[in-house]
Write a structure and sequence with these properties.
This protein is α+β, with helices and mostly antiparallel strands. The protein contains five helices and eleven strands, in the order ααββββββααβββββα. It has a single domain, classed as outer membrane lipoprotein receptor (LolB), chain A (Clam), CATH 2.50.20.10. It has an eleven-stranded antiparallel beta sheet.
Length: about 250
């Protein structure tokens, strides 16, 4: 007599369905990540296409055994007519502003009280020279908004990219992109300031929501900068968000 195979119980069938569902979910995520391997490039293209942009941000710099500084910034951008403003507020009360209008870019630093003007077409030094005074914020999102300009950028030499799954940032599902960035001397090609950089890109809007830069340090020492963004694509902006008048000139 040939014995028939035992019928699966309801519990066994339910477990099989769960395993099958999990497999399909994993396969779906894997296919999405493979399809979105160019997510950084698509994010770049999105920023370059924006008509306007605004954000608020926080920078946390951790250093040494337990040191920590926290700074804030805001960005406002209008493509045409050109309007731009990056205001950086350093822990301790210092302030640095970069702003642009159709004729020029300008910088102002509270510490010195000086304003410098960079008329067109030689206006790139306004952003290129502001990385240090803005803890790098001038070298990130602004360089993507003006993607066609030859600006110094933390994304210019961002290589070895890999999408390392997804993660929620401020309630938004984001792709986590791993890579390495560095500064390069144009004349010699020498690489300096090499560091690991992880970028979280909103899966729906392609806006960047978080950047973590990690430098090598001595054992027991931290050398990490975390920049978080609350970004808005194509918002309605008024002139008060774009213009800046240095104190004392009002």
């Amino acid at each position: 007599m040939v014995k028939s195979a035992p019928r699966p119980t309801a519990a066994t069938a339910w477990c099989l369905l769960l395993l099958l569902g999990s497999w399909f979910a994993i396969e779906s995520v894997d296919r999405t990540l493979r399809a979105d391997g160019d997510v950084m490039q698509r994010s770049r293209a999105m920023y370059a296409s924006l008509k306007s942009y605004a954000d608020t941000g926080v920078i946390v710099f951790e250093y040494g055994a337990s040191g920590k500084d926290q700074h804030t910034f805001t960005t406002s951008f209008n493509r045409a007519p050109r309007g731009f403003r990056l205001e950086f507020n350093k822990q301790g009360g210092d302030r640095y502003v970069v702003w642009g209008d159709p004729d020029a870019f300008h910088t102002w630093w509270k510490t010195t009280g000086q304003q410098f003007d960079y008329p067109n077409p030689d206006n790139m030094p306004a952003l290129n020279g502001s990385g240090r005074n803005t803890s790098g914020s001038a070298l990130k999102i602004p360089t993507l908004l003006y993607g066609k300009a030859q600006l110094l950028s933390d994304f210019a030499n961002y290589t070895d990219l890999a999408v390392d799954g997804t993660e929620e940032i401020a309630g938004r599902r984001c792709y986590r992109v791993l890579g390495t960035t560095r500064d390069t001397y144009a004349a010699t090609g020498k690489e300096v300031n090499v560091r690991k950089m992880t970028v979280w890109i909103d899966a729906d809007s392609l806006l960047i929501r978080k950047v973590v830069e990690q430098w090598k340090g001595l054992p027991g020492q931290i050398n990490r900068m975390t920049t978080t963004y609350e970004p808005r694509a194509n918002p309605q902006l008024d002139q008060t968000q774009l213009r800046f008048v240095p104190p004392g000139e009002r």
